[in-house]
Amino acid sequence: MSKSKTQRRSISSGTSSAQGYRFLNPYNFVRTLETRNAHIARLLGRCAPPPHDRYVGLTGRIYCRLTATTPIFVADGENVREEHVNGKIHRHYRFFRDPENKVAIPGTSLRGAIRAIFEAATNSCFAHFAGDKRLSYHLLPELALQLVPARVRKINTRWELELLPGTTTITPGQRPAGPQYAAWVHVYDPLQKSKTVAQSLSKPYAQRQKLSLTGFAHGELCHAIIERMIHPRRNFKFWNVVHLAKSAQSLPEPGANQLKVSGYLCITNQNIENKHDERLFFTNQKLSPLDLPDTVRQKYEELIADYQERHRDEVRKRRDPNRPQGTEPAFSRFIVEGRQKLTDGDLVYAMLDKVGNSGYKVRFIVPVSVPRVGFERTIGDLLYPSDLKKCATYDALCPACRVFGWVWGDETAVNPPELSVRTAYAGRVSFSHAVLTKDGGTFDETLAILSTPKPTTYRFYLRPRTGKPQNGQDDRQVDYNNQNQILRGRKIYRHHGARLNPQEYRSVNGVKSDQNRTVRGVQQAGSIFEFTVDFENLAPLELGALLWSLQIEGWHHRIGYAKPLGFGSAKIDIVKISLLHPEARYASFTSSGWHDQDQQKIDAWIKEFKQAMKLRFGAAFEMLANICDLKALLADTPPLPVHYPRPTRQPQPDGKQYEWFVGNKRGGNNPGPRIALPLAEDDVAGLPLIDKNGNIIP
């Protein structure tokens, strides 16, 4: 047995950090709860909020002290300085200032941080949740070979697909038995030197002549002379275009082993490093068009939108995204175009299923030959319980939406509400800026590049509905299409505490680019801020939930920028709370109506909240899954270093963190360990370093 296989076996059996270097992922998830007693503590469910035009509950002010327990930084939108580095813009930000130019944490940042805790603690809705979004995955190359070139046709209101499989009979579920379906049009020199050409200089493949596409357009009907060819390394057959002409132009007569054909030119740009050919879609077969169902068209348009969203920022930074930049490939044409809707004449690749002895139906269509494909299930389909979707009506708001506010926002709705229907509710809490009252010191730093969320990393973002995540399972057991998989919960960045290592937040070698920031005036741990929270018409249970969410048992809130890198931990203490008694205020010329509350009263409100949670969700408050997860992520300094998965102990300047995920999910005869992120409360043994080949590094 190889050493790497021994290491993989030991990690899947849950061995401890004695195995070698271990680290904790910067984020994990707070699980959601199933309601056990829906008729109890109805204020923890969905109901109509109280009015704003009269006093019907508790109204007052909470005075708070916030103490930074790690460096903390909240960017100011003003006085942003730009520095040009290697042709790109690197930005410098200062710490936020209030209207009096005092260092402060804006009330909006505080509100967002406290609401996130309140939502998790009260099992409220997922207020910012793209439930209709359909994520996508890379289709395996062996499956991509089954894709059939096709052209979309719209005839009146009917949508259909014209199949263009070249000279080869379509065999759904199998790679082409003859030459590949589309002809190759040699246009580019690869950005990376071709090993195939270098090793086959005497073969016809290496002697193919490049063609110019100047004057030709994507989707244009063309005439071509094609000849049969064999790939020298992979031994598959394909048709190579040797002459290309517009429909009105003439072509020479075809020679031996050549054909004259008509077809549609498919140009997707030089969108991968080793790309050398575009494609010509054609056929010499008489095939009936296929029906193109509405659901297939919709999923295609969602896929295009997903592609465009993934690359939007990168496209904006390119001078000409249709062309390579140095060794970086161009972006696909459909990404740059910005168009999402399917139109008559579009060229696509179709995955077909066999119907009967000789029929076909369309399973899905994609824009390129090695594509991403949308999952069958949307993100919303994986939310569990399903009633935690964003609140949709005024009369059925969750605790967080009633306390912090709500706006109807289903942009995908076909029929939005009538103007007479209430579509918003103002929150009953407001946060002042937190003004710096004790300066614990400051520093400037050029930060490491922050990673973007990667929800298609199934082993980190999904978990089984019952039981715990397991190591060693293949993709089909853990992806979005598996009916047993659900979303893990609410994403929380863990507190780093004394484990915070400057090497994790500093840019390696101080490198500056357009992907990272330099921050000025970062407040050191020990800095103190003070702020207030005004509330109105809260029920005692709601006030208890708010007070608990502010103090969170002395754990650490996560506020501001660079939380994955360890910034932004802070403790909040309640200095005092004052209640307004409206009757006393308006019945007397001398009484303000304000009365400070003692600690016993504060504890009683929090106790009422905890008791209601216990009764509604069926377990002692501290034993509820969401509270256990919050404690695991926010309570104490973790036992291990905290950083994103990567193949080395030290951060690398070339940013090869992705190699960890490549190696972890590696398939084939020598698969990677396929490690799943443990649940937050179980996440103590840590993750190993993994290289791109799936080997665990000690």
Automatic annotation (TrEMBL):
Keywords, alphabetical: Antiviral defense
Pfam families: RAMPs (PF03787)
CRISPR type III-associated protein domain mapped to chain residues: 66-123
Swiss-Prot/TrEMBL GO biological process terms: defense response to virus
Classification via InterPro entries: CRISPR-assoc_RAMP_BGP1436 (IPR023825), RAMP_III_fam (IPR005537)
Protein name, per record: CRISPR type III-associated protein domain-containing protein
Source organism: Chloroflexus aggregans (strain MD-66 / DSM 9485)
